[in-house]
Design brief:
ABC transporter, permease protein, transmembrane helix, 6-stranded mixed barrel, alpha+beta, single chain, ABC3_permease_C, transmembrane, Membrane_comp_ABC_pdt
Length: about 850
Amino acid sequence: MSLAISARFARRELRGGLRGFRIFLACLTLGVAAIAGVGSVRSAIQAGLADQGAILLGGDAQAEFTYRFASEEELAWLEGISTALSEITDFRSMAVVDTEAGSERGLTQIKSVDDAYPLLGEMVLDPPMPLAQALDGAEHPGAVMAPVLADRLGLAPGDSFRLGTQDFTLSATIVTEPDDAGDGFGLGPRTLVRTSALDGSGLLAPGSLYETEYRMLLPEGADLDALKAQAEERFRDTGIRWRDARNGAPGVARFVDRLGSFLVLVGLSGLAVGGIGVSAAVRSYLARKTPVIATLRTLGASRSVIFQTYFLQIGALSLLGIALGLILGAGVPLIFAPLITQSLPIPVLFTLYPGPLAEAAIYGVLTALLFTLWPLARTEEVRAAALFRDALDSARALPATRYLIATALLIALLVGVAMLFSGDPRITLWTAGGILGALLILAVAATGIRALARRATGAARGRPVWRWALGAIGGPRETAASVVLSLGLGLSVLAAIGQIDGNLRAAINRDLPEIAPSYFFVDIQPGQIDGYLARLEGDEAVSRVDTAPMLRGVITEINGVDAQQVAGDHWVVRGDRGITYAAQPDARTIITEGEWWPEDYDGPPQISFAREEAEEIGLALGDEITFNVLGRDITATITSFRDVDFSTAGIGFVMTLNPAALQGAPHTFISTVYAEPEAEAQILRDLASSYPNITAIRVKDAIDRVAELLEGVGSAIRWGAAATLLTGFLVLIGAAAAGEGARTYEAAVLKTLGASRARILQSFALRSALLGAGAGVVALGAGILGGWAISRFIMETEFTVMWPSALGIIAGGVIATLLAGLGFAWRSLSARPARVLRARE
C-alpha cells in the first residue's frame, strides 16, 4: 500500500519537469555514453576481425614453423587436408641501394611468397599490375615494397636494390597487403619477393632467423577444432604451430581488447566523477523539497513512504539518463563509422551491439544507486517539527546503518562487475582502489580547506574581499566539498595519466638512449663471428660488444603438462622464444637462486630461467621445461634463476642452457654494439659490406617505432581522461547553479552594507580561484601518487614527477572553477537587494 502511495507522490513530483536535474542527467548520460561508446567500438573491431579472420590470416588455417620449411611428411599432410596451399617465409634483413655517394641501407621485414599467394584478398600495387607480373622482373627478380621504405631509400619503380647478395628490381609499391594485420608487429616496412629468388642470397642459411607459414583453404564445413587437434597430435614433436581464421590477427585482437578494457576503466572514473555530481544534484533538490517532506510528515507520511517517493522519482530520472547515455554511446560510433573505419588499418563492422550497451547500463544503474542512496537516506531524518527548516543541512553526517551496509555492498558489486567485464582483475582493483583512495583524500582535503579558510578569515581583517571569500569557503552553506570532490577527482585522473604518459616518454626518449646499444646485429653465422669481432674490437669508438649464440624454440610443456595450461597467456609461452647456451655466466649475470652447472658439464640438460618471468609463471627449482627446437623436443631441469633486465635493449634471454644440451643444433649469433654516434654509420657500412646476410637493427629506430605506437595509445587514454574532466566541469556548473541563490542573497546583503559590485565580483572570483587551486593541489598529490603506483608496480618503470604537466593541472583547476563560478555570478550581482531581502523574509 505504501508503495502505491509513494508511486503516486513520485508521479506528481515529476510533473514539475527536469528543473534541478539537468546536471544530474548530463553527468549520468555522459558517463554511460563513454562506456557504451568504447564498448561499441571495441565490439565493432572484434566483429570485423572475426568476420575477416580468413583474409587477415591469408587462408582458413595456417601451420607455422621456426627456422625451417615443412618436411615432406608435414607438407603431404597439409596438402591432403586443404584445397589450396601457399608457402610464405617471413624474416628481417637490410635493403641496400648503391649510389655514387655510397650505399644506403634500410631495415625491412621481408615476406617471400610462392605463385599461389595470396589465397584470399587482393594485393593492390602502384602502378597497378598483377602481383605475379611485379615479381617476375627482367634483368633481376622483381620485388614490391612499402612506400615509406622506397621513399627512404630513394627508390622508384625500375630501380635496383640488394637483399643479401641478390639484386632485385623494384616493380611497384604496396598500396594494400591483404594479410598485413595478421602478420603482427614488425620493426621494418615490408618488402615482398618470391621465395625462389632468394636462392643463393645467404638470407635463409641454416640457423638464420626466419619463419615459414603454410596457409590453406579448407573444404567447406571443415572441422577446425578437429584439424587443430590432429595437427598437434600428429606433429607434437616437430614444433608445428597451428592458427585458424577464428583468430586471424591475435596480436591486434589482444591489443584492442586490453586497450578497450583500460578505456572502460577510465570511463568508470568518469562515472565516479559524474556520481558526485549526481549526489550533489539529489542533495540540492531534496534540500529545496524540505518543506514538502516536512508537510508530508505532518500529514502522517511514514519514513518509508518519504524514502520510496523520492527513490522512485530519482530512479525514473536515472533510467532516463541511462537511456540517453545508451542512445548517445551507440549512435556516435555509428555516425562516425566511416571516419573510424578509414583511420584503422583493420576491418571494422559497425552495428548495434547489445553486449556493451548492457554493460554500460549495468554500470549506470549501479552508479546511480550508489551515489543517490546516501542523500536519499537522509530524507528519513526530516521531521514534522522541522517544517521550513533546513533539515538536511542540519542532519547527522552518516545515515542509518542499513544504508551504510547497502552502500558497501553496492561498492563491492560495482568493483566485482568491473573485474568481470574488464577481464583484468589486477588493473581493475588498482583502478577501484585509486578512485576510492582519491575520493577519501579529496573528502579529507575538502574538510581541511574549509577549516583552514575559517582560521584564515581572522587574519584577513582590513581586506574585505579576502575576508568575504574565505568566510564563504569556510561557511556551512558553501559548496567546497562538491567542488573539491568533482573537480579534484577529474583532475586526479588527468594528473595520473599525465604523469604515466610523461614517464613513459622519458623512459623511451631519454633514459633508454643513454644505456641502450647502437645496433642489434642478428643472423651472424658461426663462421663469421671471428671476423665480425675483429672489426669491432680494435675500434676506439666502440666501447662494448656483447655476443651470444641464439636459437629459437617453443615451450611446449612444463612438468609434463601443456605449457599454456600452466602459464596461461603469459608471453613466454606465447609463440617461439630466443634460447642461448653458456658454459659459464658472464660478469654481469646475477644468479638469485640455485647454482650454475660446471664448465665442462655433459649430463642431462639443465636450464637457467629468468627470475621474474619464473615467478609470474610459478616455476621452482627442479621443475622441468620441455621446448621444441627445429622439430626436436628437449627437456631440461631448472637449476638456477637469474635477473634479466630487458629494459636496457641489450641481450637478454629468458632461457640459458648448458652447451651440451644444444650440441649440433644449427644456430647463429646475435650481438649488440655500443659505439659513439659519429662512428655508427661507418661500422654499419663495413659490416654490411663484409657480411651482407647480417641484419642490423638500429636501436633508436626501434625505440622510435615503439614510441609511435605508445603515442596512439596515449592519445586514446588522454581522450578518455578529457571526458572525465568534462564530467567534472559539468558537476562544477551544477554546484555553481545550486549555490546561485546563496550568492544572490550574499550579494544583496553586501550591497546593502555599501559594497560595490566590483568588490563583490572580486570576492566571487577569489573564492572560485582558491577552491580551484585547492582542488588542483590535492588532485595533483593524488594523481602523482596514482601515477607512481602504476608506473612502479604495473609498468615497472622509474618515476619522476613531470612538473609541466603538474603545474598545468593546478592551472586547469583554477580556470575551471573561475569559469563555472563567474558564469553564474552576473545574475546574482544584478538582482536588486530590496527584492531579494524582502523575499527572504
